[in-house]
Amino acid sequence: MRARDCWRVFLVLCFLAVAACAQTNHIATSAQLLSNGDTVQAEAEARKAMQSPSTRALALAMLGTIRLQQGKTDESTKFLVQALALNPKLVGARTTLGNAYAFGGKPDLAAKCFYDVLKIDPSNFDARFDLFKLEASRRNFQQSLDLAVPIMPQLLESDEAIVVLASDYGGLGKKQELADLFAHWQKLPQPEDQASLDFGTTLLVYGMKTEATKVAQDEAARLGAHPSPPLALKLGNAFLALGLLDEAEKNSQLALSLAPDCVACYQTLAQVADRQDNSEKALAYLVAAKKLAPEDPEVLFEFGKVCLERNLVDDALPALTKAVEREPDNDSYVYVLGSAKVAKGQLPDALALFQRLLQKHPHDAVLMYATGAVYYLQGKYSEAEALLKQSLAAQPNQVAASYYLGLTYDAIGDDDRAIPVFRELLKSNPKHAPSYVKLGGILLRVHQYEDAQQNLERAVSLDPDSVEAHYQLGLLLRRLGKSAESESEFAESRKLEAAQRAQKDVRLRLLLPE
């Protein structure tokens, strides 16, 4: 028997024992019906027992138990409190009241109930087990483990309990104890699907990827015998978290084949494709998800974000705008919408969005950078400089903030400050091609031709498709009198610019309304 079911069965046995002593058939019958899952008839019998003062407390407790099983925690609490007012010695009722409080989001009241039971009966398994789980959920990991000690042998035979123990050991940094749990897990005859996923997730969170992978693979093997869309999707997400993209795609596709209208399946497959650096494939999945759930803000956001990544700005903007309209307090949605506004050239709107976020998070380095970048694009260079420097002070070694600070100095013609910014950036990020382009262009302007050539050639080697790198290198070679080589670079620049424009035009036609 699973430990999580013990509270109900122990309570039923308690009722049966008391009922037998009192020779009251209605309580005994109600308890039996409840154990069989017949809540309707169980309630009818319990209400009959309400008529006698000698069984009223038990009947109220039974009604409270029935309501809890039905998920009606407020009614459950009301009945159980009344029962305990009539008979404070009903230990099972007090344990059930603790569960009602726990399920109703009142952990302090739940803990008090369980501790009160243990004061009366330290050997009460139900109260100890429920309190063990409750303290773990409240991140009181050591208290949870202390409660577990007297019942540890039983816990190590329960999938649910092992998941809780894993969170305790992981939260306390007890890596060896956490590793030992894996051996106990493998001895379980048939762990439940959700417990397996929870255990694997906990192992992964605390750095045990090999063990987490084995748990997920075992669960996937069991899935093959009894395919289930929800479980297949959960496994897909588990393998995605593990970075096993082929397995993630396989299980997510299985879920989709079993449930063709599964929006979440398309979303997970899009995430897998994104991790595979296949944004076109990701977009195809999100198009399908959007058709099924055109008003879902998460789908709209993911669709808009991938469109933005693929320069489909005209498609990204309405989707992101609608997502923000539905969830205006979602900072991620607002930030990406601001980025889309920048891409579209709607700088005042973008600035307003970033400033709104910056007011909420005044010390956020990324938001300082984003706002400063928009100021730069608007030609407000003093405001841009101030915010970009604040961003770098809050979070040094940012590539984007350093790059835009260099651009700001370049825009105002302050070569003496622009050059050191780009050089410092390239020391820590030697493959940042745009910085080589800008630094090479500035060095060309100040007639440091040899240094300029080294930087521009490095930019071309890192990014052969950079229009500006080829153009700047063409200008340099012209200055050096190398006309043929210069013209070759100009020609390459023109060819790349035309190809990129054509590619953008094709992309923009992909998502036109049918």
Short description:
With 514 residues, the protein is mainly α. Helices cover 79% and strands 0% of the residues.
CATH fold call of the domain at 1-155: Serine Threonine Protein Phosphatase 5, Tetratricopeptide repeat
Inertia-based shape: elongated
Q: What's the mean pLDDT score?
A: 90
CATH homologous superfamily classification of the domain at 1-155: Tetratricopeptide repeat domain
Number of helices: 30
Question: From N to C, what is the helix and strand string?
Answer: HHHHHHHHHHHHHHHHHHHHHHHHHHHHHH
Poorly predicted segments: 1-23, 505-514
Radius of gyration: 32 Å
Specify the biggest β-sheet.
none
- What class would the helix/strand composition place it in? mainly alpha
Q: Classify the helix fraction into a percent range.
A: over 70%
CATH architecture of the domain at 1-155: Alpha Horseshoe
| Proportion of beta-strand residues | under 5%
